[in-house]
Write a structure and sequence with these properties.
0% helix; 59% strand; rod-shaped; 2 domains; mainly beta; 162 residues; single chain
Length: 162
Amino acid sequence: MTANKNITATFTIIKYNLTTTVVGSGTVSPSTGSFNYGTTQTLTATPTTGYTFKGWSGDATGTTNPLSVVMTANKNITATFTAVSTGIDVSGNVVHATIYPNPSSNSFKAELPVPLDIDVYSLDGKLVLSYKNVTSLTFGEDLQTGLYIVKAGDTYYKIIKE
């Protein structure tokens, strides 16, 4: 070196992307973002009514909620939510049907493991809807606000139309 030199170094913080995916019905907060290396992000899984949080998959595993994620790389994390069965067994023959969302302001979805008849009754015992030999069904769009009893096979369910 024959003279004084001025040298400038420029540093930037490394950022990593966090992306979340939802399976089922619910939300994750924060759902996406770009975060500084080494920072901890807290993901919170919130199920919608009629669902429950089942767990995390992808770049995170387990059922801890909220979940702490240290950003040391790009992360893709999936939150899985499952519908809650609201069956009331009165015969000893459990159907394990699922009716969701419950409550609902629009329609309900029924999923059954075997073909069954589904009947929907008002609280005064009046049959308001009837379906024969179904395993999957969307119903209830025209129901008035209120509480209803759904019979699927020998199992009864309570649904609420908002």
